[in-house]
Amino acid sequence: MNDTLNRQEGLNAVSRVLIRCFASCVLFLILWFCLFIVGGESGYRLHSRWFSLSRHEYDLINYCGMGLLKICNLLFFLFPYLAIRWTLKRKIREGA
């Protein structure tokens, strides 16, 4: 009984960490998008000095990076969070 409670508390702690990581990643994505929209031209000028990039390549790198970050955010933070919450709800229903 005590081991089960410790396991549930541990899973609750992990789920809280996962949802915070998910939220912080979403905020980072929003910030990245806003900076890309507002400062896109100055960002392009800065990076084109270092690398030989066309404007199309710069935009493509940013959009692909945002897409990859979204997929990783869902895969590594949201889906495990949902799986843990679903498992905990099922354990509570079975115990009640």
What spatial form do the alpha-carbon principal axes imply?
A: rod-shaped
- Secondary-structure element pattern, one letter each: HHH
Distance between the termini: 14 Å
Our estimate of the beta-strand percent is under 5%
Low-confidence stretches: none
Helical fraction equals over 70%
> What is the β-strand count?
0
Largest sheet: none
* Structural class determined from secondary elements: mainly alpha
Rg calculated over all Cα atoms: 20 Å
Number of domains: 1
Counted by DSSP, the helix tally is 3
Mean pLDDT: 92
Structural account:
The chain has 96 residues and is an all-alpha fold. It has one domain (13-95). Helix content is 93%, strand content 0%. Helix 1 (2-38) runs antiparallel to helix 3. 2% of the residues are buried. The mean pLDDT is 92.
Describe the structure concisely.
The chain is mostly helical and 96 residues long.
Task: Produce the secondary structure layout.
Blueprint: H1 2-38, H2 40-50, H3 55-95
Helix pairs in contact: 1-3
Q: Which properties best describe this structure?
A:
96 residues, mainly alpha, 0% strand
